[in-house]
UniProtKB/TrEMBL annotation:
<feature type="domain" description="Helix-hairpin-helix DNA-binding motif class 1">
    <location>
        <begin position="165"/>
        <end position="184"/>
    </location>
</feature>
<protein>
    <submittedName>
        <fullName>Competence protein</fullName>
    </submittedName>
</protein>
<dbReference type="GO" id="GO:0015627">
    <property type="term" value="C:type II protein secretion system complex"/>
</dbReference>
<dbReference type="InterPro" id="IPR004509">
    <property type="entry name" value="Competence_ComEA_HhH"/>
</dbReference>
<dbReference type="InterPro" id="IPR010994">
    <property type="entry name" value="RuvA_2-like"/>
</dbReference>
<dbReference type="InterPro" id="IPR019554">
    <property type="entry name" value="Soluble_ligand-bd"/>
</dbReference>
<dbReference type="GO" id="GO:0015628">
    <property type="term" value="P:protein secretion by the type II secretion system"/>
</dbReference>
<keyword id="KW-0472">Membrane</keyword>
<dbReference type="InterPro" id="IPR051675">
    <property type="entry name" value="Endo/Exo/Phosphatase_dom_1"/>
</dbReference>
<dbReference type="InterPro" id="IPR003583">
    <property type="entry name" value="Hlx-hairpin-Hlx_DNA-bd_motif"/>
</dbReference>
<dbReference type="Pfam" id="PF12836">
    <property type="entry name" value="HHH_3"/>
</dbReference>
<dbReference type="GO" id="GO:0006281">
    <property type="term" value="P:DNA repair"/>
</dbReference>
<feature type="transmembrane region" description="Helical">
    <location>
        <begin position="7"/>
        <end position="27"/>
    </location>
</feature>
<dbReference type="GO" id="GO:0003677">
    <property type="term" value="F:DNA binding"/>
</dbReference>
<keyword id="KW-0812">Transmembrane</keyword>
<dbReference type="Pfam" id="PF10531">
    <property type="entry name" value="SLBB"/>
</dbReference>
<keyword id="KW-1133">Transmembrane helix</keyword>
Length: 218
């Protein structure tokens, strides 16, 4: 009887060990992916990358480029440090005043439009509130510099600020082309040089030659 019990006990132990080894092997075996699953996941990752790239448009690129553009402007009059300064493209008069140390106590702040955008080669004059006669002359200079689209010296049209009516005065430019120029300017910003106007729809080199000596960028 004892011999039979020993044999049965041995068999139970062997079966138990065998089951334990089989279960352990199944649990530790690495998961295999078939070719179809690998292909699907690979394509999914590629599509995600393509979608990300499609989010970059021309406007993003332009705005990114504008961050690195610089302009040179001068500020005179009633600021603490009048001088010539290098500013970021898109800066406003308020930014320039801060860079110049701020207004003096005599500055006529009411005559300054601090929200106005600066352009390359601008010269801003801050008036003395105690000098009314000088203020009138300085205001005329500032207005001529920042608002005029015509150059009194050479009678040229500034294509960065010209109205539709002013653009239509140019040889070969009708209402449709003038609208194209304004639309391009609103979407892409100011022209950096006269030749950039050929980027506008319906304006080629031949058309540019007709009025090249009558336009400028400021």
């Amino acid at each position: 009887m004892d011999k039979k019990e020993k044999i049965i006990g041995s068999i139970v132990m062997i079966v138990g060990c065998t089951i334990f080894l089989i279960v352990g092997y199944i649990l530790s075996k690495p998961k295999n992916f078939n070719d179809e699953e690998i292909f699907f996941k690979s394509n999914k990752q590629k599509n995600e990358v393509i979608v990300d790239k499609s989010n970059y448009n021309k406007e993003d690129i332009k705005n990114n480029n504008d961050k690195f553009k610089k302009i040179v402007v001068e500020i005179k009059g009633e600021v603490k440090n009048p001088n010539v300064y290098i500013m970021n493209y898109g800066s406003r008069i308020n930014d320039l005043v801060k860079k110049a140390g701020g207004f003096t106590d005599n500055a006529d702040k009411m005559s300054v439009n601090c929200s106005m955008k600066l352009k390359d080669e601008d010269c801003i004059i801050i008036n003395d509130k105690n000098n009314l006669q000088g203020n009138v002359l300085n205001n005329i200079k500032n207005n001529n510099k920042t608002n005029s689209t015509m150059s009194s010296k050479e009678d040229k049209i500034n294509i960065n600020t010209a109205t539709k009516e002013e653009l239509m005065k140019l040889p070969g430019v009708g209402e449709s082309t003038a609208n194209n120029i304004i639309d391009y300017r609103e979407k892409n910003g100011e022209f950096n040089r006269v030749e950039d106007i050929t980027k506008v729809n319906r304006i080629g080199n031949k058309t540019l030659e007709k009025f090249k000596d009558k336009i400028e960028v400021r």
